[in-house]
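Q: Hi! First time asking for a complex rather than a single chain. Here are the components, and I think there are three in total. Is that enough to go on?
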Amino acid sequence: MRKIFQYGLVRGIFGQILGMALGYGLVTVLQLLSGARLRAEPAWVVGGAFGAIGFLIALGAFTDWFRMAKGENVPEPEEIEEPQGGKRYWGLSYDHKVIGVQYGFLSLFLLVLGGLFGLIFRTELLAPQLQFLSFNLFNTLIGLHGMVLIASILMGIAAISNYIIPLLIGARDMAFPRLNAFSFWVAVPGALILVWSLALGGFETGWTGYPPLSIRGPMGVQMFFLGVWLVGWSSILGALNLIATILRMRTPGMSMFRMPILAWSVLATSIIALTATQLIGLSFQLVLFERLLGMGFFEPSNGGNPILFQHLFWFYSHPAVYIFVLPGLGVISELLPVFVRKPLFGYKWVAMSSLGIALVGFLVWAHHMFAAGMEEYLRVPFMYSTLLVAVPTGVKFFSWTATIWQGNIRLRVPMLFILGSIIIFLLGGITGPMLGTVSTDLHLTDTYYVVGHFHATMFGGYIFPFFAALYYWFPKITGRQMSEKLGQWQFWLLFIGFMVMSLGQMRIGMLGMRRRIADYDPAMGFQIPNIIITLAGFMVAISVLILFINLYRSARFGKVAVGNVWQSRSPEWQIPSPTPQHNYPVPLRVVGEPYDYAGGSEQYVELDGAAPAAHAAD
Amino acid sequence: MATQTSAVEHMHSYAYKLRTSRIGLWLFILSDSFVFAGLLVTRFYLLGGHRPELEQMVGVIVTSVLLISSFFMNRAEVEISRGNRKGFITSTAITMALGIAFLIGVVGVEWQIAPFGPADGAQGAVFYMMTGMHAFHVLTGVVFLGIILRNGLRGHYSPERHWAVEAAANYWHFVDVVWIFYYPALYLIGTL
Amino acid sequence: METSHDQEKKMELRRGVLVFVVLAVLTVIEYFLGTHGAPGIFLWLIALLKAGLVIWFYMHIQRAFREEGGH
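A: Yes, that's all I need. Here is the structure of the assembled complex.
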């Protein structure tokens, strides 16, 4: 029993249960003492909040900060020698590489969970009328499918940035390692609370949580709000850390325009995540308090205005899609030159286009509300700002095509995923203007067309690049290569399955199938397309299953990765795999351009004194 | 090569880390100000040119209290940076007392005498949420002040090293800046 | 050297007082304008000015952009 408590995660969950019971009990006792009517909802909300604090205390995430507050000396994070071995992945660690892997685990776990929710309601949609779900459960599942996968995506980009960014810029760790560990661990109780909403009656609103419905529905929505709020803080603090790291921890001599391009994408993403995320937290918090105390923010009968919620909510939730895709687009730009052996076309333009997408992204939120009854004069300005996003995104597409042009393409698995993501992101991109234009959006809004478009942007902008990154950097993390054969199976199943699913959704949406509807009229002829979409969805699921088999088998029996497996110029491949404990044995020295594969400068970075692993292996 | 090594050593110096921490705190303040800006938008979206019925006297008193506290907070920071520990302790203690006085003024007086409760329409919602969110930040600021006061009494800070004091002071001033916008938005702008 | 540092700090103390006086005067003007139904734009301008003073003189935002460290 005592042995099991050595694992931070187990301690944390135990602490969360304890904290939850404490918070629940406290509110109940207070209600009894004050003679008020006993309400379970405030007790659950306070219990949820106490649970999260309990998790973090039991884990030990606060211990060092408490000691600092008491004026005790705590060691600088880089002086701490953590014991090596698999156990540290299950508890608090300040090493950015461990935290990156932890983020990755959580991301994949949530990916499976959110995907399963999707499969369940897709199965329900095989036939008209309700088969095995209730209306409430169907709605809860679509809401959780959305939000759990958003959490998964946030964790996934944090995984890539945490593991890779310090390596790319030649840093020993992130700028604030303790905060980094906190940012990861606060997401764990957040995810647990999010799923806990299923146990409290679920919620009917979908992932957007629009009032007035969210004010009236079952109280599962409170756990949904609380969980999102915690995951949001994880994202905010992680972004803060990444900005500080990119600005301050670059190896001397690496100017901003000599950074690997992924760092620019992560910087742009982090600027949005740092600021805009507060607004979804605030909007959910306002509904939470409206439910608890009857405050009249959004309920029209009490002086509120539901449109205000949509403004606050979309001020984050639209830029959020740029948070999701920018790191993915950065991965595309980062890996393309390695696999086509050519410099990245227009480095500065690509770097600036990331910032451009981030800044324009702040000005487009109301295009989600064209049909919501908002102020009419806002429609046209927001239409134009929305279409403006195509300009910086187009810069990236032209850069990619020009980079591939006449390149010496090596079709390894990461490259397959990169090509797949370019194609699918293009599909997502060109189906967007119809939704950004007011006149066509009024017909397509709230149909499956939106679902198809959105999933295309997410798969092209995140899922495919994430898998590419996984295949590409897996040897760096584990020291073993992933199976190419299984990887190709996964790619083709995913690509074909996704294409069928997404195009099917767009088509059925154009024909008039509404989104978020559990039942449909058989006379509309929607059943056959729905069956096809569901089967394609299962194909996607099987491809992810193959990924897991590949991950497991390759980690145990995969080919040992020796040296620079992809012949990359990037600094992280100039040291052995898996990455040594303190990254680089000696400070990096930048001597060339990052993507100069065609010749010119011999190397991008130099490690003084250390034998370059690349040439030792070749 | 030698310049590279010394440049890397510079990155491990206190001065370098101090500036990194400063940037981190400013990023946090930037992030937090989006919450307060969101509430400000909420106030004008829901109430427009109407302002809640509040006691002007309480408003101007708590505003002055917070402004004076900011003055003493700045004084405390300058005192520790010139090595006057006693002056630092006094000023921090005064700041803390004024912070608590502000909390009493808002939560203990204004909340009690306001002619509406949190559930009474948009003005109740806006007023209690804005002052509540701000009061929560004042409370955390008071806690930080308590920490630096306690550690200051034990002689933990020197003119060369007092990042904790600077951080607490900056956070305190930020809370003051928020009130600089919230005071007119709640008490002065618009008509009854 | 010690004395110049000391003098600089004394000047900072004096500057703190001066900034406070300006802030107090602005607050009085603000209160007067607000209670006499002046247009909101003036109150916004005063608030921006006050915030700018605090951010520059009390929060020392310029320090975040200054390469050489120290308090």
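A: The helical segments of chain C are 2-35, 40-58. Let me know if you'd like any chain examined more closely.
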